[in-house]
Amino acid sequence: MFKVAVPNRIANAAAVRGGCRGDVSAAAAAAGCSRQTAYQHAARVQHAVEDAQLGGPTRRQLLAENTQLCDENQQLWAALEQTSDCPEEKLQQFAVTASACGLSLSQILVLLAILLPAERLPSRAAVGRWALQAARRAGRILEILDRLCRCLDRLHEQLQQTEPRQEVRQAMVEWWRLEQKKDRQSVTQAAVQGQVCRSMGEDWQESYQRVSEVLQTVVRAASAVECVNSVLRMQQERHRNISQEMRDLKRLYWNSRVFSDGKRKGSCPYQLLGVSLPTYDFWELLDLDPDKLAQELSNQLLTP
Description:
Elements: H1 6-18, H2 23-31, H3 35-53, H4 59-81, H5 88-101, H6 105-115, H7 124-148, H8 151-162, H9 166-179, H10 184-198, H11 204-215, H12 221-238, H13 244-256, H14 269-272, H15 282-286, H16 290-296
Helix pairs in contact: 1-2, 1-3, 2-3, 5-6, 5-7, 5-13, 7-13, 8-11, 9-10, 9-11
């Protein structure tokens, strides 16, 4: 609230700008203020008049516009709190990865509905189309990667490099095989085989150590099959039918999935097989061009 009324301010300005000698003192006394204050009133009144001559919105209009903008700002912040920053590429990555993990299309939509507002939720057909397109890309990528993962051939090559002498190599492999068994007959045979290997050269201990290190990387066939079956059973419980394309998608996912615990923690199956890839990330592998990937891995590809 003003200490000096507006009419008194205007009177002070009039006395300063057009009054005679003594008018300023008289106007200031009538308004109950000092002469210095009267001169300040004159400057302010002059600025106000000049601003009014410039045109544009009035103060009342500006206040109304400011109120409207504040209301819109609050509405935008409220809408932002309800919106998830999730571009379509991320939606596709979520849907494809969830499908590779074994979730059905209905389950994927249920999870997306938690994250997204209804108007951003993709249709069931769209999610199915994303998964199918990714599955077909996975099939083309696997055609190349499968040629790099012929475990038996790679095992023979590693053993041959480790122990070039064929007779010694075969004897050491047999000794290692017998030592893995725990039945009485195998224990006896392992003891005999050990004596045979010791007689093959002074470096028998170093040779057996090298062969053992290679063979210890091998997963037993029964265990490998059981691991595959456990994954397939989980998938079959959620899907009526699993096409070959979807099998390819799931296989690429599980082969590039990093183990979170155990002795293989921090590595994925492709890394454990010694396959050198530009990336081991599932989504990034799907995004690779198969022809360029084949060219990049041409030095590693094994001839049939």
